[in-house]
Amino acid sequence: MGNSEPFIREDVKSLLKLLEEAGGPALSEMTLDEARASYVAIHAMADRPARELAVIQDLTCPGPGGEIPLRLYDARESREPGPVIVFFHGGGYVIGDLETHHNLCTEIAAQMDLPVVAVDYRRAPEHPFPASVDDCEAAARWIASNPEALSRTATGIVTIGDSAGGNATIVVTQQLSANPADVPVVLQVPIFPLASDAVGSTSIEEFAEGFILTKDAIEFFDLAYQPVRGDPRAFPILSDHAGTPPTVLATASLDPIRDSGRDYGAALAAAGVDHVFLEMKGLTHSFTNLRQAVPSAQVDLERIFAAMKLMLGRA
Residues 159-174: what's their mean pLDDT? Predict the structure, then answer.
């Protein structure tokens, strides 16, 4: 784009103006509890209401650090064996939880007509890298092999997540490719993921502030999570991409970590991996959870679902 102004949708402009006028401290200036509460608050304000579903059930599974809370979503009371979607929430591995992404998970379950299991992994700074991804992997393996606990038999796993959860999506898929679970990952769906190190990228400088996710917040998360540079479980771009399952990859054009997602798309293309790459023009990071405030983002979420259906039909 050079030095020209980036394209920003009208509904995005309205939200950004609202947030700018509201002011408030930066994430790095808040206590951990305040940062977590602010993330719950913005999603409560900006996201569409949760869908009514036949099943919303809290469960747990064993993990490396104790029981991992899970939440099962299904539009149907019971169903035939089929794919199960495993959802990993965003929030920099620091501030998200089952509540911040509850509305989104109901939307995925309703629109995909598949069971969704959301994973409440351990968070940093209490539990730095690799605790979060270890929990995500353990949960995916458990979901693959415990049909009686879910009352649903998984024939395959669909990994999906946003932001940090997009990072977890790729990492878990890679771990399950290297060391298979009871059923394969049939599709992975990283949404505005961190795949390569965002530090030093063009997008992190271009969208450093004023576009929901800030450079300051990224540094705050990085400091808390303490990812090991050079470890593919921190930066999955470093892994071998041959043999990656079908992928739906989504980025946002106004996202400071946009280039990290683009890097991953390029790596998949270079490895000949079957994938759909969608860059949502004029949208920011977190658009999946801002669908009330940014109504046009609902259409983009539905484009992701359409691509998922396409790739699952192929898988």
Answer: 98
